[in-house]
Amino acid sequence: MENDEQSETHAEIMEATYRALCEHGYASLTMQKISDEFEKSKGLLHYHFDSKEELLTAFIDYLLSEFEQDIASIEGPPDEKLDEFIKRFVVVSNTDDRKALHLALLELRAQSPFNDRFRDHLARSDTIVRDVVAEIIDDGITQGVFRADAEPEAVAQLVLASMDGARTRGLTIGDETYPDAVSDALYEYVIDDILVKTNE
Amino acid sequence: MENDEQSETHAEIMEATYRALCEHGYASLTMQKISDEFEKSKGLLHYHFDSKEELLTAFIDYLLSEFEQDIASIEGPPDEKLDEFIKRFVVVSNTDDRKALHLALLELRAQSPFNDRFRDHLARSDTIVRDVVAEIIDDGITQGVFRADAEPEAVAQLVLASMDGARTRGLTIGDETYPDAVSDALYEYVIDDILVKTNE
């Protein structure tokens, strides 16, 4: 019972952090601004997290577990799961909240070379996300959806780097069509080539 | 004569900005710190640039023109020019100065949604860099190096997004091998496929 309550509070703090980051960005984020978005007491916030850094490190892990749950919840063949993964990067460009979040995350990422904890958690997140994509490709090979000579790790690395680059470039130059254009090119030059063609 | 002197001073200011950005990063950069790296007078710095923002906008253009000169100076067939373009992203991971510069630029890029001038100059830079790569592919098609059905704009977009994403991820998680791994995948899944195979 107590654990349920604690994990509910944790989730509420993460949602408050999400809202505060979207509204204020990374640079001017304070524990007070997160507390303002949190419906429970400021004391409870500080009971859970000693510092902004500790809270943001937990937030990186929270986004990762949200992502993992999202991908795991897709029922369907591996090629549809891959489509869904790519769509997540494209959708960012379409809602103001997601744009604001990813801009805040870009600022946080730019600090990570000077912050061991951010860097460690981002590196862990990078490995897990790449593994998720590689596993989708691997499952697709087993199920005959993707070609047997496709290399899961290499494809995963290329998909993730190109979509992340597209999102960053789109966000920073204010071009909402960027991730869409890159995903089109990614399908044409990479994904369509590893799909097993069936005669319909 | 006066124009030569002015453009020499401009180049010296840009080099001072480069050094100051590498040493101090973006967030703590001041006109004073740039002036400290500039051998001539602080008055001359302020005569050329009213504000840090104006100076950094000129610096974005300076990096772009350096890049254009670099690529234009490569004597060789289009596929070698493309190799050289990709190598520029990989090399970033190998020298501390380039790493520091690109981290500073990442911070600056994260500010661009809130700064019209940064955004405009970054958008212009993005278009020009993509055009340079698309032109390399286009020339390669004309010269029979790349396949006639390769689409210059789509390939350019994919190359640029994936290498930019690889650089950002490598820098932020401290993995120097990232751009190399993504460039390997890019060759295997995209560039080798558009190369015209010749019987040697």
UniProtKB/TrEMBL annotation, chains A, B:
PROSITE patterns: HTH_TETR_2 (PS50977). SUPFAM superfamilies: Homeodomain-like, Tetracyclin repressor-like, C-terminal domain. Residues 30-49 bind DNA. Keywords: DNA-binding, Repressor, Transcription, Transcription regulation. Gene3D superfamilies: Tetracycline Repressor, domain 2 (1.10.357.10). It comes from the Archaea. InterPro entries: BetI_C, Homeodomain-like_sf, HTH-type_TetR-like_transc_reg, HTH_TetR, Tet_transcr_reg_TetR-rel_C_sf. GO terms for molecular function: DNA-binding transcription factor activity; transcription cis-regulatory region binding. Residues 7-67 form the HTH tetR-type domain. PANTHER family: HTH-TYPE TRANSCRIPTIONAL REGULATOR BETI, HTH-TYPE TRANSCRIPTIONAL REGULATOR RUTR. This is TetR/AcrR family transcriptional regulator. It comes from Natronosalvus rutilus.
